[in-house]
C-alpha cells in the first residue's frame, strides 16, 4: 500500500531520483577510494580498484531503478526497445508483415465502416428500427409497395401493432428564385412526420402535429433541407420568416433541418394539405400517398403483418366489393432502402475477412520464418539463463509491435479506402440520410483486430521457438516437422481464400459485363433529359396544348433530332410504377408497368414497334383511350392470339372508366432495372392523365449537353416562367443506376483479389524460403554426395506444389459450398468454369513464380561452403 | 576466515535494519559494518544492497538524507523510521523462529 504511494512519488520526481541514485553510487566508490588511499594505495590504482570492487555500476543502477518500477512495465519497455532494434535491423521482414497486416486491417475497417453506416446504424431517425414499409400482392402477382389514401391511413392507424402511419408525396415542383423559375424537389408530408422522425431542426421549428386535429387548415409553411438552404440561400441565418413560392403559393419558411436529415432527399418540406396533390381535378379521387409505418415497440414484424392483412382486406378496390385475395408484407426501412446494398456489403465483408485471414497467416509465416533465422540467438539466450516465459513474452511483444504498426498503417489505409468507397458509391445507391463515416467504434474494431491478429500470428511461432532447446545447439532440425506442418496448413488456407476471392472477382466482373452488354431494347446514346414541371393546376387538355408548344420550340434548336415527353424514364432508377390491370377473360387485377408517353417516345429512344401502330398525333391531342403494350405483355396475356384491338382497363389511370384499346406492340425495354428482364408494360398517351411533371427526352445529333443553353432560351420564349431542369442524359442515368455500382463492386473485388494474390505469393515465397533454410545442411550434404540440382529443385517444388494444389482444391470446395448462399444475395454465380479456371491459373502462375526463386537458390548453392561453415 | 558466505535469501533486510538501529549510515558504511561485525563471514553484494535499500525506502521502513562523512564526502545516509523499527521487531522474531526450527530438525546419526 505504502509502496504504491512511494512509487508514485518516485515517478513524480524521477529526474531528481535518477540523479541522486547516480550520486549515491558514485559516493560509494569515492568512500571506497578514500579508504584505499588511507591504506596506502597509489591514487590511480585506488580508484580503479574501488570501481572493480563495486562491480557493474550501470547494472546496479538498473536493478535499483527496477525496485521503483513495476517489473512488467520495465520488461515491456525492454522488450519493445529490443523489438524495435531487431525490426530495424531486418526492415524487409517488418515491412512485409506490417503491409500484409495493414492491408488486411485497412480493408476490413473500411468495409466494416460502410456496413456500419448502411446496415447496422443507418438512419438518424427516432425508432428507425421499427419503421417498416408495407407492400402487398394481389393473387399470385408480385409484391408492390402500398400506397394509401388519407382515409385508409386513418383506418390503418387504429391497428394495435402500429405506433404511427405517415403519409407523403414527393414531386418536382415549381418555384421562383428571385424571379427566375426553378424546380425544387418537394416532400409534402403529413404533419406527424417530423415529430415521428424525431430529428430536431437546426434552426427554427418544424410543422408540429400540435395542430394535427385539423390538418386541412395548416398554414402554408416550409421547412428547408440543409442542402437547399446552403445552395439557394448560402446558409444565411435570416431566412426564417421569409417566404418561398412553391407551386403557386407563398410558403413561410419556419425551419431548417440538420445536414444528416435527408428524408426523401427533398429540397424542402411542406405540409401535405397546403398544396394540391397534383394539378387537375381528375386526381382528386385518387390521392394515394407514399406511406411508412412505425410499429409499436416490441411488436414483431410477423404479428404486425397478420394484423395489417386483416385491415388491408377491408380496403376494397374501386368499383369492386368482396374480400380480396391479397397478401401483405412488411420490410424494415433499412432493408427496403438499402436492400440492394445488403448483399453486396455482406459479400464484401466476407471478402475482406478472407483478406484479413490471409494477412494474419502471412504475418504468422513471416514470424516463423524469421524465428528460424534466429534459432541460434534464442538458443544462446536460453542458455545464458533467460526463462522460457520471458522469451515467449519477448517474442509476443515483437509480434505485437508489428501488429500495432500494421494497425496504424491499416487505419491510414482504411481512411483512404473509405473515402474511395464513398466517392465511388454512385449517387442514388445509398439513400441520402444514410451516413457513412469512420467512427470511434470502427477504430476500436480495428485496434481489436490488430491486437488479436498480432497475438494469433505471434503465439504459435513464439511457442514453437521458446521450446527450442539449447542441446539442439540451434543447429538441429528438431522443430522442422512441426513448423513445416503449420506452414503447409497456413499456405493451404491462404490458397483456398485466394481462390474464393478470385472467383468472387470473376463473378463480379461477369455481372458487370452482362449488365453493360445487356440488350436495353433502346438506344440511350445522345439522349438529353430535361425535367419539366407544369405550373399550377391545369386541365389535361390545356397541358397537352402547352406541352405541344414546348415540343415544337425544342425541335427548332439546332442539333435536336426528335423530342418526346414521358412520365417515367425508360429504365427507372427505383421500382417502376405499376398498376393493376383488368383484361376481360384474361387477367383480373394483375400488375403491369405503366407509362404515359407522347407518340414520339418510341422513335426518340429508338424502341422498335413490333406490330400494329403507335397512336397518331390527333389521338394524342384528343386524349384517345389507346395504348401500346410491350412484347412481354403480348406474349404473356395473348400467347397465341393477337393483342391488337383488345381492350384493357388500368386501375391507376384516371380514365379507368374507359377501357383502353391496344393499337400496337413495342419491343421490350428494360423497365425493371438493368439486371432483370422486362416486365409487362402498357404505354398510354401522356395526355390521358394530368401530370404535374414530365421528362423531356431530346435526341441530339451531337453531345447531349451542347444543346442545353439554346433549348432553355427557346423554352423561355414560349413561357418565361417555365422552369426547366437539365438532368443527366439517358446514358448517364444508366451508368448511375447500375453500371457504376457494378463497376464499383467489380473493381473492389478485383482489387481485393489482386491483393490476396500478392499476399499469398509473398507467403508462399517465404514458406519455401523457410523450409529450404531449415534443410540447408541436409540439402548441401545431398548435393555434395552427388544429387543433381534438378533433383533437388524438383523435390522442393513438388512439396510446395502439392500444398498449393491442396489449397486450390479446398478453395474450390469452399466456392461450391458458398455458391448457394451467395447466389441468394446476388444474381451472379461464383461457379463459372471460365472464371474458376482463370482463378486457378492466376494462382498457379503466381505461386509457381514465388516458389521457384527460393527453390532455385537452394539448388544452386555451394554445398561445400555450407557444410564447412554450418551456415 | 577462509569461508565467505553470501547473504541468505531474505536476511539482507534484517541485517540492514539491524545495522541502522545503531544510527544513520550510508550504503558503503552498511556493507562494511555487516562484514566487520560478522567477522568477514557475510559479504553483501552491491547489486543486492542498493536495490534492497531502495526497496526498504519504498516500504517506508527507512528514510534517506544527504549528509557528509567524517572525510567530508557527501553521501546518502539512511535512518530507521518508526515503521522500520516495528518491521525490525517482526523480522527478528521471524528469524528466531527460523533458527529454532532449523535447530530442531534432527541431524543424521553420526
What is the CATH-assigned architecture of chain B? Orthogonal Bundle
Hey, roughly how much beta strand do the residues of chain B contain? Answer: 5-15%
Q: Extract low-pLDDT stretches of chain A.
A: 211-217, 274-285, 473-478
Strand order across the biggest sheet of chain B? Answer: 1-3-2
- N-to-C SSE series of chain B? HEHHEEH
**Head-to-tail CA distance between termini of chain A:** 54 Å
Please indicate the count of domains of chain B: 1
* Oligomeric nature of the chains: heterodimer
Q: Explain this structure to me?
A:
The complex is a heterodimer of chains A (871) and B (110). Helix content of chain A is 53%, strand content 16%. Chain A folds into 4 domains: 2-69, no CATH class; 140-324, no CATH class; 339-517 and 737-869, no CATH class; 527-730, no CATH class. In chain A, the strands form 3 sheets. In chain A, strands 1, 2, 3, 4, 5, 6, 7, 8, 9, 10 and 11 form an 11-stranded mixed β-sheet that branches. A 6-stranded mixed beta barrel of chain A has the order 14-15-20-17-19-18. Chain A has a 4-stranded antiparallel β-sheet with strand order 13-21-12-22. In chain A, strand 1 (131-138) and strand 2 (144-145) form a beta hairpin. The two termini of chain A are 54 Å apart. With 871 residues, chain A is an alpha+beta fold. The relative contact order of chain A is 0.11. Helix content of chain B is 52%, strand content 15%. In chain B, helix 1 (12-21) crosses helix 2 and helix 1 packs across helix 4 (82-104). By secondary structure, chain B is α+β, with helices and mostly antiparallel strands. Chain B has 4 helices and 3 strands, in the order H-E-H-H-E-E-H. The model of chain B has no long low-confidence stretch (mean pLDDT 86). Chain B has helices at residues 12-21, 27-37, 46-58, 82-104; strands spanning 25-26, 62-68, 74-80. Chain B has one domain (12-104): Arc Repressor Mutant, subunit A, CATH 1.10.10. Chain A binds chain B through residues 2-3, 6-7, 10, 20-21, 23-25, 27-28, 30-32, 34, 54-56, 59-61, 63-64, 66-68, and chain B through 26-29, 45-47, 50-51, 53-55, 57-60, 66, 69, 71, 73-76, 83.
Amino acid at each position: 500500500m505504502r509502496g504504491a504511494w512511494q512509487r508514485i512519488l518516485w515517478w513524480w520526481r524521477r529526474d531528481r531520483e535518477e540523479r541522486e541514485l547516480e550520486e549515491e553510487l558514485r559516493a560509494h566508490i569515492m568512500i571506497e577510494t578514500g579508504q584505499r588511499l588511507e591504506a596506502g594505495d597509489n591514487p590511480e590504482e585506488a580508484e580503479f580498484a574501488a570501481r572493480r570492487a563495486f562491480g557493474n555500476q550501470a547494472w546496479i543502477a538498473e536493478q535499483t531503478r527496477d525496485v521503483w518500477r513495476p517489473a512488467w512495465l520495465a520488461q515491456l519497455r525492454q522488450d519493445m526497445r529490443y523489438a524495435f532494434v531487431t525490426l530495424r535491423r531486418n526492415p524487409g521482414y517488418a515491412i512485409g508483415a506490417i503491409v500484409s497486416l495493414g492491408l488486411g486491417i485497412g480493408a476490413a475497417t473500411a468495409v466494416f465502416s460502410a456496413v456500419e453506416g448502411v446496415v447496422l446504424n443507418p438512419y438518424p431517425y427516432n425508432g428507425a428500427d421499427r419503421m417498416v414499409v408495407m407492400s402487398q400482392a394481389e393473387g399470385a402477382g408480385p409484391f408492390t409497395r402500398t400506397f394509401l389514401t388519407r382515409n385508409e391511413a386513418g383506418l390503418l392507424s387504429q391497428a394495435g401493432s402500429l405506433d404511427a402511419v405517415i403519409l407523403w408525396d414527393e414531386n418536382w415542383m415549381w418555384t421562383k428564385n428571385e424571379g427566375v423559375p426553378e424546380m425544387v424537389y418537394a416532400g409534402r408530408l403529413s404533419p406527424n412526420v417530423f415529430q415521428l422522425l424525431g430529428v430536431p431542426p437546426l434552426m427554427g421549428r418544424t410543422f408540429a402535429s400540435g395542430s394535427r386535429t385539423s390538418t386541412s387548415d395548416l398554414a402554408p409553411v416550409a421547412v428547408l433541407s440543409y442542402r437547399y438552404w446552403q445552395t439557394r440561400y448560402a446558409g444565411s441565418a435570416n431566412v426564417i420568416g421569409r417566404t418561398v413560392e412553391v407551386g403557386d403559393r407563398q410558403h413561410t419558411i419556419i425551419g431548417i433541418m440538420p445536414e444528416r436529415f435527408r428524408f426523401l432527399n427533398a429540397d424542402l418540406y411542406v405540409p401535405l394539405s397546403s398544396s394540391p396533390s397534383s394539378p387537375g381535378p381528375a386526381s382528386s379521387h385518387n390521392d394515394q400517398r407514399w406511406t411508412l409505418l412505425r410499429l409499436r415497440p416490441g411488436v414483431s414484424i410477423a404479428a404486425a403483418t397478420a394484423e395489417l392483412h386483416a385491415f388491408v382486406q377491408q380496403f376494397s378496390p374501386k368499383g369492386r366489393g368482396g374480400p380480396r385475395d391479397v397478401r401483405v408484407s412488411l420490410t424494415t426501412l433499412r432493408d427496403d432502402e438499402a436492400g440492394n446494398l445488403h448483399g453486396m456489403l455482406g459479400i464484401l465483408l466476407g471478402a475482406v475477412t478472407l483478406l484479413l485471414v490471409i494477412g494474419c497467416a502471412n504475418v504468422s509465416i513471416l514470424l516463423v520464418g524469421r524465428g528460424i533465422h534466429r534459432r541460434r540467438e534464442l538458443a544462446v539466450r536460453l542458455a545464458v539463463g533467460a526463462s522460457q516465459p520471458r522469451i515467449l513474452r519477448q517474442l509476443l511483444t515483437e509480434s505485437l509491435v508489428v501488429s500495432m504498426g500494421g494497425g496504424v498503417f491499416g487505419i491510414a489505409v482504411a481512411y483512404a479506402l473509405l473515402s474511395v468507397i464513398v466517392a465511388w458509391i454512385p449517387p442514388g445507391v445509398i439513400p441520402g440520410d444514410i451516413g457513412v463515416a469512420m467512427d470511434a467504434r470502427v477504430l476500436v474494431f480495428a485496434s481489436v483486430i490488430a491486437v488479436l491478429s498480432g497475438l494469433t500470428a505471434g503465439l504459435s511461432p513464439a511457442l514453437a521457438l521458446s521450446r527450442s532447446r539449447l542441446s539442439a545447439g540451434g543447429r538441429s532440425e528438431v522443430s522442422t516437422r512441426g513448423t513445416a506442418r503449420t506452414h503447409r496448413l497456413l499456405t493451404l488456407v491462404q490458397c483456398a481464400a485466394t481462390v474464393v476471392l478470385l472467383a468472387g472477382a470473376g463473378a463480379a466482373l461477369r455481372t458487370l459485363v452482362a449488365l453493360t452488354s445487356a440488350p436495353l431494347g433502346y438506344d440511350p446514346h445522345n439522349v438529353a433529359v430535361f425535367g419539366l414541371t407544369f405550373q399550377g393546376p391545369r386541365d389535361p387538355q390545356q397541358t397537352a396544348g402547352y406541352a405541344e408548344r414546348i415540343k415544337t420550340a425544342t425541335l427548332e434548336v439546332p442539333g435536336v433530332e426528335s423530342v418526346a415527353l414521358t412520365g417515367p424514364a425508360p429504365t427507372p432508377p427505383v421500382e417502376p410504377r405499376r398498376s393493376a390491370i383488368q383484361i376481360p377473360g384474361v387477367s383480373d387485377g394483375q400488375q403491369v408497368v405503366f407509362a404515359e408517353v407522347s407518340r414520339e417516345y418510341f422513335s426518340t429512344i429508338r424502341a422498335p414497334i413490333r406490330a400494329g401502330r403507335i397512336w397518331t398525333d390527333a389521338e394524342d391531342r384528343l386524349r384517345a383511350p389507346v395504348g401500346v403494350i410491350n412484347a412481354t405483355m403480348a406474349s404473356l396475356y395473348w400467347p397465341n392470339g393477337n393483342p391488337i384491338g383488345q381492350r384493357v382497363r388500368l386501375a391507376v389511370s384516371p380514365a379507368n372508366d374507359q377501357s383502353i384499346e391496344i393499337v400496337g406492340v413495342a419491343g421490350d425495354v428494360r423497365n425493371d432495372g438493368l439486371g432483370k428482364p422486362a416486365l409487362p408494360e402498357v404505354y398510354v398517351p401522356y395526355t390521358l392523365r394530368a401530370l404535374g411533371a414530365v421528362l423531356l427526352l431530346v435526341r441530339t445529333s451531337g453531345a447531349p449537353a451542347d444543346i442545353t443553353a439554346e433549348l432553355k432560351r427557346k423554352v423561355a420564349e414560349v413561357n418565361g416562367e417555365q422552369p426547366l431542369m437539365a438532368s443527366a442524359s439517358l446514358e448517364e442515368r444508366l451508368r448511375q443506376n447500375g453500371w457504376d455500382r457494378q463497376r464499383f463492386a467489380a473493381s473492389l473485388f478485383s482489387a481485393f483479389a489482386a491483393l490476396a494474390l500478392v499476399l499469398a505469393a509473398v507467403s508462399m515465397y517465404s514458406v519455401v524460403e523457410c523450409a529450404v533454410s531449415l534443410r540447408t545442411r541436409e540439402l548441401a550434404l545431398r548435393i555434395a554426395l552427388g544429387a543433381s540440382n534438378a533433383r533437388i529443385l524438383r523435390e522442393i517444388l513438388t512439396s510446395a506444389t502439392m500444398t498449393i494444389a491442396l489449397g486450390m482444391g479446398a478453395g474450390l470446395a469452399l466456392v461450391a459450398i458458398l455458391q448457394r448462399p451467395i447466389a441468394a444475395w446476388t444474381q451472379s454465380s461464383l461457379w463459372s468454369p471460365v472464371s474458376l479456371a482463370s482463378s486457378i491459373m492466376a494462382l498457379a502462375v503466381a505461386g509457381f513464380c514465388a516458389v521457384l526463386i527460393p527453390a532455385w537458390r537452394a539448388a544452386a548453392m555451394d554445398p561445400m561452403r555450407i557444410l564447412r561453415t554450418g551456415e | 576466515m577462509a569461508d565467505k558466505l553470501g547473504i541468505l535469501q531474505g536476511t539482507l533486510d534484517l541485517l540492514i535494519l539491524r545495522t541502522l538501529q545503531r544510527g544513520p549510515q550510508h550504503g558503503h558504511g552498511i556493507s562494511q559494518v555487516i562484514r566487520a561485525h560478522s567477522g568477514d563471514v557475510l559479504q553483501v553484494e552491491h547489486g543486492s544492497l542498493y536495490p534492497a535499500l531502495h526497496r526498504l525506502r519504498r516500504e517506508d521502513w527507512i528514510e534517506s538524507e544527504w549528509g557528509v562523512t567524517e572525510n567530508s564526502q557527501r553521501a546518502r545516509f539512511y535512518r530507521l523510521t518508526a515503521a522500520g523499527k516495528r518491521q525490525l521487531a517482526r523480522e527478528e522474531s521471524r528469524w528466531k523462529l527460523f533458527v529454532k526450527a532449523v535447530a530442531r530438525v534432527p541431524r543424521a546419526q553420526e
